[in-house]
Each structure stands twice: as structure tokens, then as C-alpha cells.
Amino acid sequence: MELDYHWFEEMEARIPHGEVRTRFAPSPTGYMHVGNLRTALYTYLIARHAGGKFILRIEDTDQKRKVEDAVEVIKRTMDSCGLDYDEGPDVGGPVAPYVQTERMSYYKKYAELLIEKGHAYRCFCSEDRLAQLHEDDPNAKYDRHCLHLTQEEIDAKLAAAEPYVIRQKIPEGTTTFVDSVYGEITVDNADLEDQILLKSDGLPTYNFANVIDDHLMGITHVVRGSEYLSSSPKYNLLYEAFGWEIPTYVHCSSVMIDAKEVDEVTGEEHNIVRKMSKRHGDPSYEDLMKMGFISPAIVNYVTLLGWSPKGDIAEQEFFTMPELIAAFDIGGISKSPSAFSMDKMKYFNSSYLRNMTPEEFTAVAEPYIRQSVKNPNANVAEIAALLQQRTEALTEIPEKVDFFDALPDYDVALFTHKKSKSSAESSRDMLNVIIPKFEAIADWTVDAIHDTLIATAEELECKNAKVMWPVRIAAAGKAVTPGGAVEICHILGKDECLRRLRVGLEKLN
Ligand code: GLU
Question: Which atom of ligand 1 is nearest to 39's Cα?
């Protein structure tokens, strides 16, 4: 086989040097789980912290796993998290294309180059023969049968167009590599199989395509899940075989979750910590969004699942993206991440919601308020103001404010409330006093409503709560409401508020 060395030189010449270059390399499986998102975040932060380049590469060689629209899910998630990439499928770049299926012609050439260099060989073994090896010993590695073919035998098989794969020739000895998170790892090469690099259909295996692309794209830091740690010695040997510089490896541990497991024998439930997974129905990024969490809170929390700041900011919990970029260091990535916790997610989310400006909060809350408050005259900003300090997830909102649209058919027993010293009787008396006073208010402002209620408590020489309680119950028809009597009455408007107080009075009569 004639190799076009000029072409290889041209490929080398395209590789950018002198900057940190990282890539997020998802397979389009249609689902961005929290672990994937965290890998994307760390990959992004390493590049941005160093003022380098962040690249998106789509690893779609395994067509069986391919899901329609999956690339859209990835791009949508990255966009929503603020992970802008400098090079990638739709934006292009100096080492395009950025989709593996568009790079297919490269892999065969590099596999042949590796044969030429003596680090790979053609294997003509039939499926049957390989199946037999496995049947004899399920753990058997390939027995290197074809490594020993003579050149004449190989030429004859090629001439007869026998199908073949190309395998990596693993050298003798040991392989040592350093991972930035897991430290130095040494393996005995005897434990490594002569893995397939190129399949008989000419398509690369994932392990091969990954190394070729990382090299040709000038990737300096390979950031990925720890499930690839055990394959890294083989990647290392490939870099060495080509004579290429080995990138910095950053393997990230799995994201765990606290879960319950039912013992099949005893039926007892106990707590376990397991890997977050789609199979168990754990939420993806988009699921978390649907559950009412906002992107900056998710990004902040997920980044801290396995990375911790150091020094002056060691105790800091809340980070904007620019702060993360400034603070992020590979040394802060931990081998043992803390488990994803819904309570912690809610804690981060509610903090972010509370710290928004009223306008920002109204904007994110409005679609949720509108799920239950359809009245076009309702003042959404005023309703949002009631919610801002007490919302953990946005999805709680519709149920909390549904009473603004329609007075629930509530039980008269709600008027009885020990703490405010309210009884059915006292509530009836209060409403009898308040209704005419409310009717007399000309300008229905928060202050006017407030002052009327407080003045009434003074007149009657009772606690404010004894006045507020029946008014709020009659106005909302619910024991628990965001906001108190004054705010609720104001939002309802004078006419609707009075109508509801009269309904309450009727119930009490
Ligand atoms: N395509 C691989 C995945 O989605 C990524 C592996 C890597 O980053 O090297 O799991």
C-alpha cells in the first residue's frame, strides 16, 4: 500500500500549537446526563481559565447508538449553560470537520501508517474463529494469530480481497501514564489486548478515532469520564507508536446519587449511593430544567460535585460563570465526588431565585404563574413578588397561586386558627367590620388596605393577626398562601376582594 506522506505532513501542519485546547466529545445518545454536563463544564473551564480554545466534537462513529436530534440536545444544553465553543460542527475551525463520521477517510490512512511503522497489523481471522476463541475461554484475548502471517500470505489474502480488520500491536513491557486526577498508573502490557483499530468495513473503533482526532485537533487536555481510565494505557501506546505528544489526561469520577434500594429477599428498603444513570430514571439536564431549576443554579451546583475551590475562596458556594473561570483549577478536581442531592439542588436554586432582581424573577416566574393564573388583568409582577423569597423550584408556582384565578371551595373550618385566636365567631365579626371599611376605600392601594386592617385591630383592641387571618382565608380560600392578607387583597382588586369576603361571611353565617 502506497502511503501519501505529503498528506500526513499537511495534516500535521494544520494542528494549532501554543495554546490550551480542550474538547467536549459527546456521543449523540439523545440525553445529557449530569455526569456529561459536569465533564463539559470542567472541559470548558480548563480552556477558559487558560485563555485557550474549547472545542465541540461529535463522536458518532457508533451509528447503532445514534439518536435523532441528539446533537440538538447537546447544543441546546451547552447553549443554555453558557458553554460557548470556539470550534465545532456548526462554527467550523482550523481542524474541521468536527463530526467523526465526516472524518472517516482519515482513520484508514492513519491505521495504514501504523502498520507501516510496525505498530499495527492486518487480521484476517473469521468471525467464527474469534467466536471459537471466546467459547473456549470467555476472557481470552486475541491470540495474535495474524501477527505471524508472512508478507506473502498477507499479499495473497489482500489479492483475494479477504476482509480484514487492523489491530494495534501491543508491545511487551509495562505502560505508565499520569492522570491529573488519579495520579500515576502503571499496567502490564500483557494485560492489554491487540485491540481492533479499524473494522472490516473500514470504520474506526471509538478508541482509535478518539486518539487520531485528539492529536489532529491539537488537544492538550483530554477531559472525560473515568470509565475511559482503563483504556488510557492503550491510547498512550498509540500516541507513542505514532511519535505524538501525549496530552494531559483529566479523568473525572462518576456523579453519584443517594438512592433507595429494595432488598429482593427481605423487601426492606435501604439507602445506597450509586452512579447516576438514565436507566434508573435519574434526571438529565433538560429534566432538571423541566423540574423548575434554573441553569446558573444547575451549573453552579454540578461544578461543585467533584471540584472544590481553594485558598481564600475555599468556603465560597456561589459562583457566576466568570468566577468559576477565574477559580477553576485541575488540582481541585476530586477522585471522590459528593453525591447529587435534590435537597442541595433546591438549596442552590432557591438562593439563585432569591438573589435575582424583581424584574429577573418576574421574567422566569411568569410562564409558571400563567399556568394557573389566566386572568389577563392579574398583575404578574406583584404575584411574582410574593413568590420570590419562598420558591425552591419554579414548578411549585402554579399550585401556589391558583387561588388568584378562582376561589377554591374551602371548608369553613379554616377560619378557626388557634395561634391568631380566630374562631368562626370572631372571623364573622371581623368580616362584618372589615367589609364596609373596604367598601369605603376610594384608592385601593397596599397602604390603604394595610392601614385599614391595622386601624381595625387598634379599634377592637385585638392582635393584628386576629383581623388578618379571616381576611386572608376569605380572600384566598386556602390555609397556606404566599403573601399575607394585604398583598392578596391588593392583587385581587377591590371588587373581587369584596366579593370573596362576602362569600366568606355567608359561609360563616
Ligand atoms: N464520546 C465519548 C462519550 O460520549 C467521550 C469520550 C471522550 O471524551 O474521550 O462518552
Answer: 8
